[in-house]
Amino acid sequence: MKISLSFMLFLLLGAVSPSESTDYQKSFPQDIYAALREMTASLVQLKADMRFLQTTGTVMIFRQVAFSASLLAGGESVVGPSSSKITLIYKHVITNIGNAYNSTTGMFTAPVRGVYHFEWTVAANGDNSHASGAGLVKNSEHVFLAYEYQATGFMSSSKAVALLLEVGDVVFVRMFVNSVVFDNGNHHTTFSGHLLFPM
Ligand SMILES: *[C@@H]1O[C@H](CO)[C@@H](O)[C@H](O)[C@H]1NC(C)=O
User: Which InterPro entries is this protein grouped with (predicted)?
Assistant: First the structure.
């Protein structure tokens, strides 16, 4: 950064045309103070610009991670009920920047250490005996549950969480025991996530 600052100064000084230099020489010493004030102002602006460049440059090298998917690649179907916790594998991927979500396994794998935000929604038609529920899992640990029970009518539940993940940590959504989830072309049952910031 020191090298480029010197280089920018060199450019700045070089930008003063020969005729201007001559003018300064002619009017020396009265106007030299005005010229110095101008240069000081330019230098302050230059420093501010470089700070901005440094900041945006850092943003640009951040990993970009964001995905969004719904359950079914096509058609309409109910998953469950099951006495075991079924991992939901979201097949209709609409965004997968950074390829951290795998639609073969349903797993999101953190590519960098950082804070990530996830949202998931489950939906189903109330059948008078089953809830619609799914929990977010980090590695093997249950984090939060989205859950709803209604005897009749359409039900839907959503949840979100911010999680600090290490590189290689795995996050996925697992159905609650004996519950059901439904999806069709309206894409009710979804899973999304993105990197908020690296740490
Ligand atoms: C997704 O997971 C499957 C099964 O583990 C693996 O074969 C495949 O290479 C993975 N895809 C990507 C893009 O990592």
Answer: C1q_dom, Cerebellin_Synaptic_Org, Tumour_necrosis_fac-like_dom
